[in-house]
Amino acid sequence: MKINEVTSSQINDKWFDQGSFKTFKKPAKERYEIAQEPGTIQTLEGPVNYDAGFYIMTGPKGEQYPITPQRFKELKDDLGNGICTPKKIIKLAKLADSDGSVPTSWGETMHYTAGNDYIVKHGPNDYGVVKKDIFAQTYDTTGA
Questions:
Q1: How far apart are CA 106 and CA 65, in angstroms?
Q2: Residue 12, φ and ψ in degrees, nearest 5
């Protein structure tokens, strides 16, 4: 392990106590497809496996990532025809201050680098990684 690298056990709810801020997804339209069979997709943070029925989301730069049908219903308002918008859910975020990785609630490991990625706290012990430029395009902090 590099000196600057943080293991997933060091990113926890307490890590957000200092330096984090409230945020939420901007209400921009997002595209999705529903996977017809299991597979693996290359996300910005690395390869992620998915099952049939998962929603394959397409982000603002054409990047793709899968989410479970349950998470889709929790996080998105379906407008039909493969288009949805994020629900306004207040979360905490913090710019990564070291390199490392975190396990996700959907069973994958996401990697992050200091100063380049935000760690977003979706709920207790539930984190995700968002690239800094994507975060700026898709998250709002003004009304959180």
A1: 12
A2: -145, 180
- The pTM for the full model equals 0.74
Band the pLDDT of 5: cuts 50, 70, 90.
Answer: very low
Rg (CA), the chain: 15
Structure tokens at 143: 């009304």
CB 91 within 8 A of CB 102: no
**From the DSSP assignment, how many helices (H) and strands (E) are in the chain?**
2, 15
Q: Which two tokens stand for residue 100?
A: 């490392």
Question: What DSSP letter does each residue of 31-84 carry, written as one string?
Answer: EEEE-SS-EEEEETTEEEEE-TT-EEEE-TTS-EEEE-HHHHHHHEEEEETTEE
